[in-house]
Every structure is written in structure tokens, then in C-alpha cells.
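name: query_chain
kind: protein
chains: 1
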Amino acid sequence: MGRKLHTDFLAVALDAMDRLVEQNDDALEAAGDEIAGLLAADGRLLLFGCGHSGLVAQDAYYRAGGLRQARALFAPRVGLDRVPVEETSRDEKAEGWIVEALAAEEIGRRDVLIVIGPAA
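structure:
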């Protein structure tokens, strides 16, 4: 039998995740502690992303057995259900629209906002 490409792919992906955690361990621990404290104080975990990144936010939202405080923020201007969908690419780069969208959410001092986007 030849090489199993799925095994190679998973090995590369797991190695990348291990390096990510190793290189950012202190920051991840500090962020986790801060987020846990805010959620314990009745804060919300607000998740937002444009286009396909928004799907990650939606996946964590309103799940059976999921985190009760998780809430996806929807912005129709950059959602994949917009027609024509190509306009979302232009609009997500436009200045200022996100300020108005977030102002409508009344984000409080105990809330956590995670913006999901492509890897740099």
C-alpha cells in the first residue's frame, strides 16, 4: 500500500496546532482565565466573523450541550446568504459599518467579543 495522504495531512495539522499552542501558551492561558472569569460573572461570549468566518461563529451558537453564554453576531451586510454574495467581500473592507453593527449589541463590561478571521 502507498502512503495515506489523510494521515500525512492530519500529522501536519496536529503539528501546526501543537506549535501554535506552544508559541502562545502564556497568552492563551491568560485569555482563557479572563474569559472564564467574565462568563462566571454573567458575561456573554460574542462571536463575529465576515463571510465564511461567520460560519465559525454560528457553529458555536445555540448548540445542544454548548456554552449557554455563546452568541453569534449576525451582520447581513457580510453574510453568505446575501445576493450577490460577491458584494460581501467589498463591504467587509468598507470603513465604519462595524461600529454601528456592534453598537446595536449593547456590549457590556463583562462581555467578551471574539472576532474570527482568516489566519495571518
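note: The helical segments are 5-40, 52-59, 86-91, 97-103.
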